[in-house]
Specification:
By secondary structure, this protein is of the alpha+beta class. It folds into two domains: 165 residues, no CATH class; 181 residues, no CATH class. Helix content is 42%, strand content 19%. The site of zinc ion has 8 residues, from loops.
Amino acid sequence: MLKAYKFRLYPNEEQRIYLAKTFGCTRFVYNRMLAERIKSYEENKNLDIKTMKYPTPAQYKYEFEWLKEVDSLSLANAQMNLDKAYKNFFRDKSIGFPKFKKKTNTNNYTTNNQNRTVYIENNHIKVPKLKSMIKIDQHRQFTGLIKSCTISQVPSGKYFISILVDAEIMKLPKTDNKIGVDLGIKEFAITSDEEFFGNPKHLKKSEKKLAKLQKNLSRKQKGSNNRKKAKIKAAKIHEKIANQRKDMLHKVSTQLINQNQVIVIEDLKVSNMVKNHKLAKSIVDVSWSEFRRMLEYKAKWYGREIIIAPVSYASSQLCSNCGNQSSQTKDLSCRTYICPVCGMIMDRDINASKNLLKLAM
Ligand SMILES: [Zn+2]
């Protein structure tokens, strides 16, 4: 089982130069290959990567000697990424044709661990080609074999490494607990055990701060130093918000996985809801799809089961007590479910989660 760990890196001046070079070289190889494929398609009208012969990164090294200065595996991965983007495009045209990589948003490269060329010792990590080891903030220990790692620099200037580890994960002991989870807007999640998970206050605070900063940014003159400074500041808050949100999603998903054998959630068509509601931003913000993804992979790791309720399942309209279906609750502002048949009165989200739980029975 593959598991990814992300840590902050603190490269020194010399290492930063090497990383910048590698980011640039992988981007160059990717863009060059893409350009050649486009040209070749225009000439031959053949996009099939299996039958077409394109130059490899190794062949580029004759023409562009400076490519030899960086890790050759990073260049091979650039080619693999392009192949992958191509395959995805042919599998699903809505994904779009592969785009050229820009310096502003793609400062990263991936390398592989061949013959223990990647390892961590004394809070430093060794990566191929670079002689010195880079300082790493390894806040979590892991066991298993490092398969590959991706080093990136985010717009605020920080460096990160994502390490893919092949680890045999211990399955959690089986439990009889089952739970239904209703995902909401006011509260992030409400369970059939009547537990509420709210959107953390510090997250809301950061979002307010960002909105204010962006308003400020629009008033600053284009190309000015102040604007540049404000941009970096905004990038930092963006990053903070993303981290705070991820942190919340990890906490909730881990708790649910730890305590329950079966978890039922709705099949939320986030994109549809975003179109139809004024609440678009908060829906996207609470990251339902990311939450579902976390639940699914953690379930796989620890031997749990996730059930996705069908779209047609009217969890918020059914009475969890008698099963009667009532359409009154289509109004989102109505917080209470009142059953006209059996008279049950319940918080509408708890009622919905109890209905979801029924799918696990
Ligand atoms: Zn009822």
